[in-house]
Amino acid sequence: MYxxxxxxxxxxxxxGAGGSYTLSPAAxxxxxxxxxxxxxxxxxxxxxxxxxxxxxITGESPPVSLIIRPNRTQHFDNxxxxxxxxxxxxxxxxxxxxxxxxxxxRVSHCLSFWGSVTGSTCTISSLSIYHTGVYWCQSESxxxxxxxxxxxxxxxxxxxxxxxxxxxxxxVxxxxxxxxxxxxxxxxxxxxxxxxYREDLTQVLDxxxxxxxxxSVDxxxxxxxGAGGSYTLSPAAxxxxxxxxxxxxxxxxxxxxxxxxxxxxxITGESPPVSLIVSPNRIQHFYGxxxxxxxxxxxxxxxWTVRGYTYRWGVSECFTFxGSVTGSTCTISVLHRSHTGVYWCQSESxxxxxxxxxxxxYYxxxxxxxxxxxxxxxxxxxxxxxxxxxxDLRADFYKDGLLIQNQTAGEMxxxxxxKSDEGLYHCKHPERGESAHSWVSVRGLxxxxxxxxxxxxxxxxxxxxxxxxVSIILGVKCYxxxxxxxxxxxxNAVMEE
Length: 497
What we know:
The protein has 497 residues and is mainly β. The N and C termini lie far apart (132 Å). Mean pLDDT is 83; it is low at 208-212, 452-464 and 490-497.
């Protein structure tokens, strides 16, 4: 960038004879940028102007001072800063000057470095590393303030991670850890839940997601639990399901990092108040198909909405990911690969359903159930093809990477499911290729669902009718008496012989 400047000949330039120019004594008004030039001959020819040489002179009582708001010399990119020429007397006619070093140093005033001017104040609304330089105030008559060296750094990035993993069962302990990498200590941390855009909350532009989607951040009410860079949920509960971010700040006039990466946390439970019902009931879906997501529960599901977390849209609601809403149901009429993500139901009070992982594919999918299969029930897996073929439905089925059934008619049935059948399944067609992998969960029988034993049936019958108890006791006694009579008769017959 070939920036231009003007060169003003010093009135006492003759003092520079012999190749040196001495300022004695140096004063505040000598602050500035200097260049020199040489000439020779009766018909003189001259050199180019020299490099720019800054000279910074400070004094105890400058007539005007450069005031920086916020009051610090270290700043981050995208920060805003205000530079004002202020003094005990009138500062009219003073303006902010900057010198920044590049391949060829340059000196300029506020408008030249993308600032706006109001009187003797220069405001830079969005700093960049190119604003690093020395700033000072200068009057029309050549007086100067003390110079100030301002440095602009790349804003540190806060990185959020979860331990032990992001998909957990309620009741366990989960820790979110926030770290400012490549930076010194002294940071304090704030913790937020990322939610779909709301006017009353801070909006964040997600530069990681394609097309720069935005979301809002809701400060956690117990954010103080995150002191020291960690935030622990113990025990984790269904309502903790969601997407989290953190941010760090440091200093008396605090400067902050960018918001961290989005960190999802999926908590599942045995008895959510509302369930996300997926139709068709499978994890994997074909590109171009339609999909219905409904929040349904034993009680009223009014006030519950479907939310999704995808790479394309971040954390968002139905209409954002191109769905239509009817009550507590979200319908996506045409699925795209960008709809691959995790979906769940959220109530106005913060309650959550179990999250569901949905994936979208082109040619081969595994038809496996969305929710856990109950122990003892049958399970049938299908290998589906697009375009559909009826002449060759052969498919191999795999569990945890191992072949468990091959050359079937496109389906595999487990007649009585047990916990040992839980795992990661996929199918493979000999010509079309293989499906993605999907986790099949198996839920153990609850006490109320356990099959009746003879003893349990007998106990229930006894509790139902005391008369039945008496009848059973009498029947047992009669049976024993008949048996005893038969045995006595047999013994007498033997003795008579």
